[in-house]
Amino acid sequence: MIDQTRVPVVVAPMAGGPSTPELVAAAVGAGAFAFLAGAVATPAALRAQIDRTRELTGEPFGVNLFTPSAESAADVEAYRERVLADAERYGVPLGDPVWDDDDYQAKVDLLVAAAVPVVSFTFGLPRPSDVERLKAAGSLVVITVSTPADARAAAAAGADALCVQGSAAGGHRGVFLDDPAYPSGAPAYDLLPLLRLVSAQTGLPLIAAGGLTHGADVAAVVAAGAVAAQLGTAFLRCPEAGTSAAHRTALAEADRETTVTRAFSGRPARGLVNQFITDHDANAPAAYPNVNNLTKPLRAASAAAADPEAMSLWAGQAYPLASDRSAAEVVATLAEQYTEAVQRLTGRLIR
Ligand SMILES: Cc1cc2nc3c(=O)[nH]c(=O)nc-3n(C[C@H](O)[C@H](O)[C@H](O)COP(=O)(O)O)c2cc1C
């Protein structure tokens, strides 16, 4: 399905607001594939997004979920005390730093009932019974991997395809186990070596993600064996995306570095450096979703005040090249650039 779109581009699921039915419909209408984000949405809200997307388009699309993370023994209380002053500055209480499963099973059940064409999972492996139920409902199952070891496990779990996420990616790294010994939760792999290593151990279709913003990047990963490129940041500034105003402004200003941090959610994620990361990154525990629940009101208050300094500004490394044009225009530009790149390559054949 993803390997049969007119343009070998997938619009990434982007939880927390950016993914919308309008973004998905515009992208699939322009010849790409696209995902809704099911993480951190209630089952009812996700169902409404699926229904709305189906009103807007008859084309196939996908839905992504985060699998529940293992409960962490890390000290979240000490972190709570550290970030308390920030919450007080914004005049909001901190959230309860509890573990939850994000209503995961209810969302799997609704996806089985909705028979969505593609369901992708991030942060771990879906249960074998869920994989079977989704496949029986007619869905293709994609699992995000960011290390060769995770790819081996995902292939063994019955995935139909893998989303191979390199270390330049914006947003959360899809690592199955967040090992605090690594800033990125696991060894960080650049996309091309990761694609090569994963291709060496599975023949599954691969969707390449991480730091791709130009049609030549799409051609590069297709040349490297991927069936398509998954882009998130390149669509964050599109008018159809639900990205907050402060996030859009920070992306447009393009004057910040990106870094990988657990400061906002307790899992490693790449975003633009701001004051909150500078102050708290070093002490952030590996405890998702506890830290995410803790900082939620603070992040919301920062966004509501259009203040970029205490909200997560997820972005991939190539974010300065993201444009504010419509999703259809971004897909069309990627398609043109892809064609040019392929022509350039065929003009440079070895004789
Ligand atoms: C704002 C934002 C939110 C994201 N949310 C999700 C998500 O909900 N599920 C997921 O699998 N990946 C998510 N990602 C990661 C993307 O799937 C993808 O790996 C990444 O966007 C690729 O790197 P790029 O942003 O440089 O294109 C998110 C990325 C961004 C930028």
Layout of helices and strands, plus pairs?
Elements: E1 9-11, H1 21-29, E2 33-37, H2 43-56, E3 62-66, H3 76-90, H4 104-114, E4 118-122, H5 128-136, E5 140-145, H6 148-156, E6 161-165, E7 171-172, H7 191-199, E8 206-209, H8 215-223, E9 228-231, H9 245-253, E10 258-261, E11 269-272, H10 275-280, H11 290-304, H12 327-346
Parallel strand pairs: 1-2, 1-9, 2-3, 3-4, 4-5, 5-6, 6-8, 8-9
Antiparallel strand pairs: 7-11, 10-11
For this entry, give a set of tags:
binds flavin mononucleotide; globular; TIM Barrel; alpha/beta; 351 residues
Task: Briefly say what this structure is.
The protein is α/β, with parallel strands linked by helices.
How would you characterize this protein structure?
This protein is of the alpha/beta class. The chain has a single domain, classed as Aldolase class I (TIM Barrel). The chain is built from 12 helices and 11 strands. The chain has an 8-stranded parallel barrel, surrounded by 8 helices. A 3-stranded antiparallel sheet has the order 7-11-10, with no helix packed on it. The chain is globular and about 65 Å long.
